[in-house]
Design the sequence.
């Protein structure tokens, strides 16, 4: 049973930053090579799901980890409040059509898990619906994996309560970050403990395991994430297709 308050949000003291950043660049370059192989072979796809509290660095993680990938093979989608049309369908309707086709990487900045996070925190759905949605999410992800050869990597970006306050204040105090400021982020922060409970429920009830990524120091986030992505892509044992003869 994962308890988030038992997991550090900072790197181990013996991890050297300079060495870690050099290694991160090597791993990111290898991810770029593997992504090219993914496109060429066309047998698998990769779905990266990122969840975390406001200020946990989801956008930055995408930029660093997938920096060397070909832009034509990677798509990022940021989930917002559902539209009226999306509300008129089941909660997975808007998600399924965004699943990656073979050869492609799709990154979800937030995801279908919002439907058992923010909605649960604010009491917009009851516990029976939460359980049924969790079951539907597991079935959906199972379908993607075994019916379409989709590798699913799920990352919870683990930020401390103290670091989140610093990140949100930077959006107020630093001019180049003003565009990120949203008063609603501070309102959601008041529900921190409820969010932690809901994240723990989602993490502990998922069939596809979550990777808990410490993000108080961004270089450490990039180091941990890039290693996981590279290792999991390597396990696909992909090969370039041979030249087709006419």
Sequence:
């Amino acid at each position: 049973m994962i308890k988030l308050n038992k997991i550090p949000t900072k790197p181990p003291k013996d991890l050297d930053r300079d060495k870690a950043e050099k290694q991160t660049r090597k791993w990111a370059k290898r991810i770029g090579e593997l992504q090219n192989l993914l496109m060429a072979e066309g047998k698998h796809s990769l779905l990266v799901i990122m969840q975390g509290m406001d200020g946990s660095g989801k956008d930055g993680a995408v930029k660093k980890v997938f920096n060397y990938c070909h832009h034509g093979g990677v798509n990022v989608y940021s989930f917002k409040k559902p539209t009226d049309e999306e509300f008129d369908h089941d909660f997975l309707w808007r998600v399924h059509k965004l699943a990656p086709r073979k050869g492609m990487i799709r990154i979800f900045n937030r995801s279908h898990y919002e439907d058992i996070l923010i909605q649960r925190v604010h009491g917009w759905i009851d516990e029976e619906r939460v359980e049924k949605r969790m079951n539907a999410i597991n079935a959906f992800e199972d379908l993607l994996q075994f019916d379409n050869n989709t590798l699913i990597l799920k990352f919870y970006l683990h930020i401390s309560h103290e670091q989140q306050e610093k990140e949100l204040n930077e959006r107020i105090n630093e001019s180049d970050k003003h565009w990120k400021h949203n008063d609603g982020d501070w309102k959601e922060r008041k529900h921190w403990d409820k969010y932690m409970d809901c994240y723990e429920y989602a993490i502990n009830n998922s069939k596809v395991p979550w990777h808990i990524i410490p993000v108080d120091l961004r270089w450490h986030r990039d180091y941990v994430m890039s290693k996981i992505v590279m290792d999991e892509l390597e396990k696909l044992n992909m090969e370039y297709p041979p030249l087709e003869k006419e």
